[in-house]
User: What shape does this take?
Amino acid sequence: MADEVLVIKLGALGDFVQALGPMAAIRRHHGGARVTLLTTAPYADFARASGLVDEVWIDDRPRGLRPGPWLALRRRLRSRRFAWVYDLQTSDRSSFYFHLMGPGRRPRWSGIARGCSHPHRNPDRDRLHTLDRQAEQLRDAGIAETPAPDLSWAAADVGRFGLAQRYVLLVPGGAPHRPAKRWPAALYGALARGLADAGLQPVLLGTASEARQMAEVNLVCPAARSLAGETDFLDIAVLARGAAGAVGNDTGPMHLIAAAGCPSVVLYSHESDPALCAQRGPRVQILRRPVLEDLSPADVRLVLDGVMGGQD
Assistant: This one.
């Protein structure tokens, strides 16, 4: 019987994208093993489409002291004789799952749970970029090489959006509880207007809840096409492959766009540290100011032209 391997990666989107390389490394290292992913519902279909795992389990994230949900999760974790567990979440919650699988035999476990067989011991692990930290964690577990995230497998029918041949993706949204991570919508609008004047269709990406930011961009640039709430993760990856470029805040979709190889400019304020979590890709430029309002559309356009190779 083939070995059973469990990978734990619960979210969020940017972190999930950055775990694709480690998941590919685990798949390659374990050859014919059956790989199961424990994740949360938003990432299940995306994970299935990747071909990196054979089965996806949804973690309903039990809370509080009600024993029923915790016991159900424990039964599920113990229902397979996993030879290895790779905890790519490395949170207090996912580390607790190591203890939830006891008492008795536990699988070999790569993570930070106290008492696990293959701990990532680097005391400075929280000062490493996510990709570097995960690669080092896997090396400690015997996996020598971890590739960069690869989205070449992503497929979607984006023709339904009817976009122009040349377009630029704009991602003006972000975490609502961290407004300092957002470049003002009016400035996105001014950037979009300049792109439209140069023959590049501005295309706005975001969730339905971010439609207000998109509408503010459209007030300045009516030519911008809003796809708020119309795209899933696969759509975004495929749109990124066809785009002339992209500009966005430090938010999950920009990890998808950068990993897809799109020439990208990602805007960072004092709210997040690119040394720890920056989007990486073959053509990505980080543009940082302590206060994003201090960035002008001309500043951003100059950098965007650079990563796009001087295109108009």
Notes: The CA atoms of residues 117 and 266 lie 38 Å apart. The chain has a mean pLDDT of 96. The longest helix spans residues 185-197. Residues 4-140 form a domain with the Rossmann fold fold (CATH 3.40.50.2000).
